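User: My instructor asked us to take a sequence, write out its structure as tokens, and then describe one feature of it. I'm not sure where to start. Here is the sequence I was given:
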Amino acid sequence: MKTKRLIVFFVVFGVVVFGIAAYFLSRPHEPVFITPQEFAQVPEQPKLIAEFTANYHLTDATDLMTPEGVRSDTKNRVIYSVAFSPVDASLIASINRNGFINLWDRDSTEAPVRVLSHPEIFPSIGFSPNGKLLASARWKVILWDVATGKKINTIETSFNQFAFSPDSKQLATIPVVAKYFRETGVKIWNIQDPKRITEVTTLPFNQSACAVDISSDGKWIAAGYINGTVNVWDLQTKQLVKTLETPLYQMDYLKFSPNNAYMVISGRSKQMYIHHGERLYRYIMWELPSWERKGEVLRGHVENLTFSPDGKLCASANHIRPLSGCGVQLWDSGSGAPITSIRRGSRFASNPSLFYYLETRDVAFSQDGHLVATGSEDGIIRVWELTPQQLEGTTIPADVVRILYLLPKDKTPPPDIINRIDKTIKAVQDLYADEMERHGFGRKTFTYETDENGTAQVYLIRENQTEIPDLSKDIWLAVRDDSSEIPFNAYQLQHANANGRFRFPSMNGVTGNVSRYDTIGFTHGKLVQASTKNIKRKRLAYTLRGAFGLPYAPLQYERNAFQRLNNIMPWAKKWHKLTKCEAEWLDKSRFFNPNQPFFDKRPTIEMTVSNAEDSDTRLFTFSVTDEDGIHQVQLFVPIDMKYRGWRKKFYDCKPLKGKEEATLAFEITDPEIMTVELRMIDMHGNIAHREFFIKPKTDELTKEP
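Assistant: Let's start with the prediction itself. The structure tokens for your sequence are:
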């Protein structure tokens, strides 16, 4: 009887469930309206609008003499200096290694308007503010009439640095110590009538000057000297008003910003003079009129630096690829925030989709600030047009996550992809906030780019696109359509300048039983990848770890699919959680602390190793310094020495809480470990690291790998 009742109950229950389901399936549904998705326009790199090849030599011109020291090798075509006319953006001047001066019409790339000659090698050029004069300098200054191309006058005492007053009536020059050993200081000349130049005064100093400039309001003249001193005088009274001491022994340039807000200098550190080793460069900026040191502007080698006409942007040129920022870097003068970069030079003949690096010697802005001209090692002058987004870059928030969606050219985006990404990344924000709060740092988290409705702003990129996107700053999350089998490089993102690294020049080499690489820093443009099947909270949080400077542990170390799968199962370690060290690291990450300054003084990391007697334990002692204050250091050791330390795991961390220098010791008991890496984050969120390789005791001749 009981069994029959159960059967009747389940039959009735099934009929009811079936009826309810049939009702909901058969009833008329209200039409669903899908809001069309709006993808953002992908930011583009500066557009190349003109190229001029400086292969016109003096044999092409009339009544001109060949400069002294000219040789016939191709290196003589290196462009050492470029300049826009301050009154005519269509007129560009360039000068190469041997002093061949070309005046170019921007709208005619076939041949230069004029070919002139400076009789010395390694010169520089510049227009007077009124655009009437062109000066070329190296051991002497020659003034040219821009309208006719004729030589007007010559000043016999000058290095290749000079400066015009804003009214074009005075010229400041640096005496040539190599030829006139008794001359020091800075000379000021009256050039109101350039045919009759008279000396106004000499601003004395007991050291040789290297760089000079005059502020755009005509108030100050400043000079840098080989002992690291910078003197600032009142240009009208010729009275010394400020003396600044620097760690430099030779200054490559000194520049006032056109808005009179900053003064910046660059040069070689005194360390190079002492050790006669690798070039150690520093770039220092002062804020005016307080003359307070604002910070170091860039890291690595910079051949020259210039400001935009409004003073809001700054552009630097670098021709040394291994060090830092090869090509042109543009950044916000006030904060040091990166705006964009240009690294593309000539195309490969065998593969036109690939480019050589742009090895720039000089960079200049047009008078309206919309164009940038570069002169490089290959003897080509290039003109680039900046986009409205780059010109407005100082007003666009930095240190945010921006999102790309990669899609085959013949496919339609899923109708809900933007909402899916938005929902997931909000959940990832909460996950990081929960973890930061759990470790006592409050609900800090990162931000991401949104539209006016507060929804994620997503940029659509198709395969084989012709435009190369500008990914030179911030974190870019590239989400691939999971049904696509198109390789990642089909989207041209490998040329987009993301994931760049730079070297802080240092005295590397072999010391004792340790060989060292340079200290490495990270640019602020990072690219991480995900797919639509991984748009899930924990997986996406894991993907973003590397963009925030955290190690990918433990998944990256597992060798097969089973091990990786096992690590994400509920019974495994909570791999999406943050350790106390990681949360402490993120507490100073610039992506968790918006509006941080981007200036970064050069850090140093050195290491010594000592062995305990009758033990395999070794003491790894690190000396670290950073004027920005060190927040935390982390030590990494290799997973498997078979790969020479390429795969590393976290070993230990130590908080330093803002100390500018410290000595740290780590004990390592594994005798097989022969390479270690120390990572460091400063109080502004700048990250640097350095690797060290231990020489085997039996091999006294081992050099740096």
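For the description part of your assignment, you could build on this observation: The chain has a mean pLDDT of 81. Try explaining in your own words what that tells you about the chain.
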